[in-house]
Specification:
Order of helices and strands: HEEEEEEEEHEEHEEEE
Number of strands: 14
Radius of gyration: 18 Å
Helix content: 10-25%
Number of helices: 3
Shape: elongated
Largest sheet: 8 strands, mixed
Length: 202
């Protein structure tokens, strides 16, 4: 499935008005939410999207509360009541106005019991964490070991793929694309643009 860039999506929404043509649309997360690799809490978590994150809503399952989104570098499934879409100039919960919003219907093929990572349905090749596993070079590991930093308390999961809140201060690593922060006394590397955790130092 080809993804339309966000600027084009915004333009499409303005042109279509309240009808919101049967295509992916922009949404906002109503709360901090867990993104799952399949439409059930039994599927593994892809990561956490913080409240107020912009997302591309691909569509929702027919007759169910699960919707597929692309948010903060992750693609997966969330509850429809956790998403907000603009409707006639006012924010509305997707689950409450699905028909009025014209939310597209998507399908998901369950493949047996849920054990480990979910098997993607056709067209779902991008579900999961976006990007390859990060292996920091030796000089970055040395920098982490030799650079003291005050630890920041955090209630969320400190795992690769999770997204840190905007109020967590991260620090640039010299000559390296990712930033550094110590959360719950664990040094981690973070993508400064998406604020997604890319590496957790053991």
């Amino acid at each position: 499935m080809r993804w339309i860039s966000k600027p084009l999506l915004v333009g499409a929404m303005l042109l279509s008005g309240a009808g919101l043509a049967q295509a992916a649309m922009m949404a906002t997360t109503a709360t901090d939410l867990t993104v799952y690799s399949g439409p059930s809490t039994e599927y593994p978590s892809v990561g956490v999207a913080t409240r107020g994150s912009s997302a591309v809503l691909d569509g929702c399952l027919d007759g169910e509360n699960w919707c597929r989104i692309d948010v903060n570098g992750m693609r997966g499934w969330v509850f429809a009541q956790e998403l907000i879409v603009d409707y006639n100039g006012a924010p509305v919960i997707v689950q409450e106005r699905r028909v009025d919003l014209g939310v597209p219907i998507v399908s998901y093929e369950r493949t047996g019991s849920i054990v480990g990572p979910a098997d993607p349905a056709p067209g779902d090749e991008l579900i999961g964490k976006v990007g390859e596993t990060i292996v920091p070079p030796p000089e970055v590991i040395t920098y982490i070991e030799r650079t003291p930093m005050e630890t920041i308390p955090y209630d969320g999961e400190v795992v690769v793929g999770a997204t840190l809140p905007s109020d967590v201060v991260i620090s640039a690593v010299p000559n390296y694309r990712y930033s550094y922060v110590r959360v719950n006394d664990r040094p981690i590397l973070v993508d400064p643009q998406s604020r997604r955790i890319v590496y957790v130092y053991e």
